[in-house]
Amino acid sequence: MTETLGTILERRFQRRSLLGGLAKTLPVAAFATSLRGEDANRDAIRDFRLQFSSVTANSRDAVTLAAGYKHAVLLKWGDPLLANAPAFDSANQSAAKQEQQFGYNCDWMDFFPLPSHDSNTARHGLLVVNHEYTNPELMFKNYAGYNSQTREQTEIELAAHGLTVVEIMRDASGNWRYIPSSSYNRRISSLSTAMSFTGPAAGSSWLKTAQDFEGTFVTGSLNNCAGGKTPWGTALSGEENFHQYFSNAGALPDGPLKSLHARYGLPAANGDYPWARHIDRFDIAKHPNEPNRYGWVVEFDPYDPTSRPRKRTALGRFRHEGVAVQVARNGRIAGYMGDDERFQFIYKYVSNGTYNAFNRAANDKLLDEGVLYAAKLNDNGSGEWLPLIYGQGPLTSANGFTNQADVLVNARGAAALLGATQMDRPEDIEANPINGKIYVALTNNTLRTDRQLDKANPRAVNRYGHILEFTEDEADHTSTKFTWEVFLLCGDGKNSAHGAFFAGFDPSQAAAIANPDNLTFDNKGNLWISTDGQPGTLRINDGIYAVATEGPERGNVKQLLSLVAGAEAASLVLNPDNTALFVSVQHPGEGGRWTDNSADSISTFPDNAQPVRPAVIVVSKSAGNPVIGS
Ligand code: FEO
Ligand code: CA
Ligand code: CA
Prior knowledge:
The chain is of the alpha+beta class. It has one domain: Neuraminidase, CATH 2.120.10. It has 10 helices and 32 strands. The strands form 6 sheets. Strands 14, 15, 17, 18, 19, 21, 22, 23, 24 and 25 form a 10-stranded antiparallel sheet that branches. The longest helix has 20 residues, at 28-47. The structure holds MU-OXO-diiron and calcium ion (2 copies). Residues 132, 225, 240, 321, 340, 427, 517 line the site of MU-OXO-diiron (FEO).
């Protein structure tokens, strides 16, 4: 049975009260840091080495792992989640069934321990999973294409977008399984789940539509890409490539709205998905403001299956990747975010209020009241966080900004006016739990020319991508100044033409890697990286890599896992004791189609059959030791 929030809070308070007066006067993160201390940090780094030898990179249609590791499939597209949910039947799918089953193209995941967010339980928890997008050519047998897509197919696709919350546990044999029909299990569907807008843009004219004259709610979230976890145990999900579902921005009259849509890449005519043919709100000519309801960060409580998701407008509108939330020393919340588009920006949000570790509900306004910043990276290695505040600098009516809602809805335009640095597709950003530094994955930018180079984006036609390392001034996540350096310039270190740089480590001794997309850290401060795009750049499948960030092995990239044909490793997360690594296998078989002719498909993952099914796999060491080493 689901625990009530009251029970969870009561037990947490009892445990916290044992910590005594110090814990009552310091935010939890500061308390942990003071206990740990710099000496302990150095010991942790010294004691740790990534123990495995790289798997041989390959292009097989199989999950292959470094020696000593194994994997198992935990969840697949269509697996029944809710009580009485039907079993997956690929030939008889419907939107109603899909809304009770695991969605398509799993992306970001995080592990939320049970029974409560601060319980640190390693073998039992909730997995929260984004379902970023759909591949109709792989979902529907003999899919006849864009012009022939039916309304039913459109609704199935919408129902397969959104999020899943699912209870998982490791059994006595050491095997992970999900709990069908758990009262925690939930589908957040892009077809039907109502969400609220909060923060400065809620109720603004930008968000008012035929469905909602007040501009305060919306049905569904779109293109949930990466995400994050708050210290109070809620989930954050970023809406990324929302533009591709809409059509017909070109039908609007010239003016601010048409310019806004152009800046955000909304299609002038047909979008990538033909949804506007069946569902009017995806037709911008009929519903001009509808796209403005997407491109936000959604927060919800995975421990409460009835909680209403909120789109937190204070965090700005762009093609959100994830949010890396940190508690600063002064107790404020900082959230680091990327806008995944060529020449777009890195952002940071800082709350006005401070984190309350004793009263979960008291944190409800932290993501509504605060300041959004965009990053400027100077060539001398310094950096500045530039505030996006209405009325300050160029963010005035002279440039079309009349209030803070205007600034947030058009965060891209505001950041550009402030002079933020145009980056090579900012993907995931994560904070290192040991050294406190911030790592930014920049996946590629083949459009950058020699004339557009800067020290932070130092390669023209950047095919392989890179990773930057930020150090906030005074190690303060609320600082407006930072320094930065290049951590990795990706590529094959054995090929000098790639110009790879691995933090000073001999590149010929490290594994080749390209197109870093998603990041996580283990408990020892090693950076784990998943890739998206290696078939096109290194001619190998995408995979999972790990690299030390400190010590003599800093920069020594190792490859743990190679994925199946057509797939990217869209997300990776470790459980609290690091004995399990969960990996999203997204878009297996992409590039092929599902027909009677097996030559049309490039993958049979995971059932050695069609249709291919995006899945979450669990990687562990054969002996049940931590995945990160011996
Ligand atoms: Fe959805 Fe930028 O990856
Ligand atoms: Ca991503
Ligand atoms: Ca991706």
